[in-house]
Amino acid sequence: MDGNDVKSGGKCPVMHGAITETGSSVTEWWPKTLNLDILSQHDAKVNPLTGFNYREEVKKLDFDGLKRDLIALMTDSQDWWPADWGHYGGLFVRMTWHAAGTYRMADGRGGAGTGNQRFAPLNSWPDNGNLDKARRLLWPIKKKYGNRLSWADLIALAGTMAYESMGLKTYGFAFGREDIWAPEKDIYWGSEKEWLTDQRYPTKDDRASLENPLAAVVMGLIYVNPQGVNGTPDPLKTAQDVRVTFARMAMNDEETVALTAGGHTVGKAHGNGNAALVGHEPEGAGIEEQGLGWIINATRSIGRDTVTSGLEGAWTTHPTKWDGGFFHLLLKYDWWMTKSPAGAWQWQPIGITEEDMPVDVEDPSIRRMPMMTDADMALRFDPEYRKIAERFRDDQAYFSDCFARAWFKLTHRDMGPKDRYIGPWVPQEDLIWQDPVHEGPSGWDVATVKAKIAASGLSVSDMVTTAWDSARTYRGSDHRGGANGARIRLAPQKDWEGNEPARLARVLSVLEPIAKSAGASVADVIVLAGNVGVEQAAKAAGFDVAVPFHAGRGDATDAETDADSFSVLEPLADGFRNWQKQDYVVTAEEMLLDRAQLMGLTAPEMTCLIGGMRVIGTNHADTKHGVFTDRVGALTTDFFTGLTDMSYRWVPKGSNLYDITDRKTGAVKWTATRADLVFGSNSILRAYAEVYAQDDNAGKFVRDFVAAWTKVMEADRFDLRT
Questions:
Q1: 139 contact partners, CB below 8 Å, separation of at least 6
Q2: What is the share, in percent, of the chain residues with pLDDT greater than 70?
């Protein structure tokens, strides 16, 4: 009998290694290989709604009906997962918070904007314990409203409706978040291989040394350890962690206190049981659990016997009501450390009166002891936090308004400018963290302005480089940056080293008068000048092309620009211009890949743009690394033909510098960096490079470059997208 016969009990009849944890990817075999997966992570083949325009369909949603259904759900307790006190408000607030709270300002990644909480690793993070139950409770509503309501919008909205149902006057809500259909591979959550451990501090005594771009103190938490730094209670030390982590998601001290207190005004922590009995997280649970995790089969594991974080108790006397109860208890009583039934450190009030104690989640005749986490106690002991807490305690209306605004910011920070907001509950007020840019003029004569730019004396390099530097700040992660607004002429961008301030000022001194005389925005004229440069470069290579252009960009003002938050958009490296601010632990090609992904580029687009930028002559400070051509300024395929020419050798001259030498004579022909040579060494990138090096693809290269260039220039033009 054949050894592969199923009945024989022999070898597995399927490609076992390809579908289970024993399989090995290329990067596992060769860990130094550049992994390009993040440039194709949301391929259309994984999307079951290909061709579906969510942003148009969501406008047809029955918004009022959806609100009514969500409000009703809050008190529709289910036997399989009963609501604490008959109200799911605390559960849904936590779900929304933990979706939005993954946002970090440094790279704009994370947040609630994609529905990523449905997938690993987030769906199985220790800090997200039992949030799978919240999403499952929402399924009937998602089923009812179908494609017109994304999971991302629903997850973000549920917590807002929970607060509204408990008495908070919310600030508003915007729809428009589109779902992804597989985990986001581009987000670096940390290098740790074990939950609730950290390797992200060069020195754990310096809490501000938390590794960038991370915002959580350990693997598997949203922010800080609720039991204290490294699990040891010390409110003043914890305050340092709280301040750093909240600042890394763009929150100031007042917003931090409002969010912490407001989040803990409702609901409770769960640790009334043996944590050792908790089952596997969803990704590790058996198939019979059907995507649910953290099941305790040995006990009830629901109601008062639930174990989630391990801490046990409510923060306030009335955990299903929006009020000032958090500050009342925090500041009224002295507190001492104790441990929950599950063994977690928490704080308990001394001498609390019975009327200040919350009732049991199942039996209202029983009073329970409230608790505080170490992060809560930080608001009492840190001097600055304490001042804010006392102000909120004394002015409930002020606290409610501050919290509503901070909650709106938390749940919308990754959505980008307000023109991406959809729905009837969008606030009219412009907020500075939304990076407001008003629509610019569009009726001016484009042809006349192009002629003035062409006759201005600016070089192709000047025009293309300035437009690129203006547009390259765009981040698809949180939709910030880009050419719209022309913030490249404002602080802090005008002074960034990567923008070559002296050269930039010279170019702007030419373009700004042209814009003023035409009645156009500077933002439009900067982009149009870049297009003129590309057209001139293409013509020098023998091709007449017209680069698409759409007027209508506006010019932001200093008052509309949050200079501090814009500092995170500063490029520390730009492989497209062959520049790094300094040497880094990560390689030049890894930094190039990261920037390409943030800009929304595919691997072929990245390849094409690199080749074109090199021969046009856009390198930072006019270096010649990677400029494999004698026809600088012409949009030729010379970068690719030079890269693939086997008459040369590639000789290392340092960690990021190489000589390209003639094999016969040893003479140095060109120089290059890793950001150049990776297109010849990486097998996938070389395949793309070879396409453009072929004799028959010079015209294709120009067309592809123009398309990729236009994509970058219009990445932030949400008004042009259908």
A1: none
A2: 97
Q: What is the 3-state secondary structure (H, E, C) of 551-575?
A: CCCCECCHHHCCHHHHHHHCCCEEH
pLDDT at 702: 98
Peptide bond into 140 cis (omega under 30): no
Beta bridge mates, 648: 662
Distance CA 373, CA 382 (A): 14
For residue 82, give the DSSP letter: P
Say which amino acid occupies 363. D
Is a pLDDT exceeding 90 seen at residue 92?
yes
Alpha helices in 232-373 (DSSP H): 235-247, 253-263, 325-332
Closest-CA residue to 238 (of 332, 328, 131, 372): 372
What is the rounded CA–CA span in Å between residue 367 and residue 304? 12
The model carries a pTM of 0.95
> pLDDT at position 6, please?
44
Q: What is the pLDDT of residue 301?
A: 83
Q: How distant, in Å, are the alpha carbons of 224, 244, 320, 436 from that of 234?
A: 12, 16, 29, 41
pLDDT at 42: 82
Residue 379 · residue 385 · CB < 8 Å? yes
Higher local confidence (pLDDT), 65 or 14: 65
| Nearest-angstrom CA–CA distance, 123 and 53 | 26
Within the chain, how many helices (H) and strands (E) appear?
A: 24, 9
What contacts 205, CB < 8 A, 6 or more positions away? none
Which active-site residues does the annotation give?
Answer: 98
Tokens of 130: 């039992």
Neighbours of 247 (CB within 10 A): 16
